[in-house]
Amino acid sequence: MRELVTPYNGRIEKIRPMLDADTIQARVKELGAQISRDYAGRELVLVAVLKGSVIFCADLMRHIDLPGLSCDFLGLSSYGSRTVSSGVVRLTSDVSCSVVDKDILIVEDIVDTGLTMQYLLENMATRRPASVKICTLLHKPANEQVHVPLDYIGFTIANEFVVGYGLDYDERYRQLPYIGTMSFEDA
What we know:
By secondary structure, the protein is α/β, with parallel strands linked by helices. The chain has one domain (20-175): Rossmann fold (3-Layer(aba) Sandwich), CATH 3.40.50.2020. The chain has helices spanning 21-38, 54-61, 115-125; strands at 4-8, 11-19, 44-50, 69-77, 90-93, 103-111, 131-139, 152-156, 162-163, 179-186. The strands form two sheets. Strands 5-4-3-6-7-8 form a six-stranded mixed β-sheet. Strands 1-2-10-9 form a four-stranded antiparallel β-sheet. The chain is globular.
């Protein structure tokens, strides 16, 4: 993999590969096996946080061996078109099924400040699930403002802005099969 350089809106966007597709897929397979063991004999609802976690959730589902597995989606926003969280979490779409008395696994692309996950954990608790846990592809502990329990972590990364494998900048770069760090230069 080599650096991707793209001119856009009067700037140069550079994406330096951090995690290649094979490394990501191997870790997703490991997470799926661990989740399968932890929830053996139980029904599990994956709640994918839109839009960033969709690719991760789809791949993760393929590696979870539970006959009672289901999936739903929930939309949250705290970034907009910025590279850092605004700290204000907004619910943009809600799950379509009841989660009362169900085991819920929130599937997130990245946890950095913890504010979004704190909001979501508090929101889910009001719905009376049997349990709520978090699975995140990426954890950025250097940005943590509030501590939330992360039950499954794909990778712990440095405090850099990343895109690819579902993560975006201004709705771009989600389709990349790898994760890369993004930087900007004036054109």
